[in-house]
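DOMAIN: structural biology
WANTED: fold as tokens
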Amino acid sequence: RQRQMCIRDSLQGLKKDNVKQKKILVKKITLKKASLSIKKGKSAKISATVSPSNATNKSLKYVSSNKKIATVASSGKVTGIQKGKCTISVKTTDGSNITKKVKITVS
């Protein structure tokens, strides 16, 4: 009887593993601000949200167009390096290929 329970539990686990979860892709990135002005040596955070809220993978990747002007951390924290202008691309990582851009001015 105990052996039957173990086999039944194992089969139920296999059934759960074999059911494919439907992947919900990001449809939109919303930025709080389309541009940021920061002073050299100072930082600001890019505020971005994804829709729908139940997307399977909500992770975003941040990339600076010119790291000599401003750098950006994986958290969206932008740091001004020297005076100038650049763009930070905010990209989805779930395969939906959505990108938004934030204009950065460092003074």
